[in-house]
Design brief:
single chain
Length: 215
């Protein structure tokens, strides 16, 4: 959960900054400003929960009071675990390291979409376009979808590029090529890593089955 919060904060922050600092349409700038506000609210919420832990837990108990125990207890247990995970904020160096890695990760992902925009010669500002596509696809694939995010990935590309006036056909072609490139790159990196570790796919499957049985 903490990792997802860092990811979402980074995505919204990058999109907001890119859209407000680069010359784009008024519509995109407005969305960027809103995303910056959402990211700031998320960050403030996390800080509040960590440094006002007792108050946050009391507020949660008050909010859960009307609900039955079978619902309230799991939510309370999950929230307490989340609060414990926030102890990372007690170490500024560790916090900055995690935030830095998150920024690095999503900037690299955004760069792949930027290079796709350049390769297709789309009428989209490369930097802000790459970050916008990255942000909207990340939100789109977070919803339940087919294996490999097929469909959700295409919808994310169509919606994000549509902001810049790109036609659905061009956006769909872009999504297919980028999706295939990501699949090929991920699978190739995984096979290379397995070979470096001296493992086969069968050994990996057996290890996964053993972990599942232990759980």
């Amino acid at each position: 959960m903490l990792e997802r919060i860092f990811d979402l904060f980074t995505i919204l922050f990058l999109f907001g900054v890119a859209a407000t600092m680069v010359s784009v349409s008024t519509r995109v700038s407005q969305w960027g400003f809103r995303m910056c506000i959402v990211a700031a609210v998320m960050g403030a919420g996390v800080v509040f929960v960590r440094w006002q832990e007792g108050l946050a837990l009391r507020l949660l108990q008050w909010a859960l009071r009307p609900f039955p125990a079978r619902f309230a207890e799991p939510v309370d247990h999950f929230f307490r675990g989340f609060v414990q995970a926030l102890e990372i904020l007690d170490s500024p160096a560790t916090f900055l390291q995690v935030l830095g890695w998150s920024l690095y990760l999503w900037l690299v992902i955004a760069a792949t979409y930027m290079f796709g925009i350049l390769a297709f010669e789309l009428p989209v500002p490369p930097i802000v376009g790459g970050i916008t596509v990255m942000a909207i696809i990340a939100i789109a694939v977070s919803a339940p979808s087919a294996p490999g995010f097929i469909g959700a990935f295409q919808v994310g590309c169509t919606l994000s590029l549509g902001i810049f006036g790109v036609s659905e056909s061009d956006a769909f072609a872009y999504s297919i090529v980028l999706h295939i490139a990501q699949f090929v790159g991920t699978i190739a990196a995984g096979l290379y890593s397995l070979a470096r570790e001296g493992m086969s796919l069968r050994q990996l499957e057996e290890a996964s089955e053993a972990d599942g049985a232990a759980a």
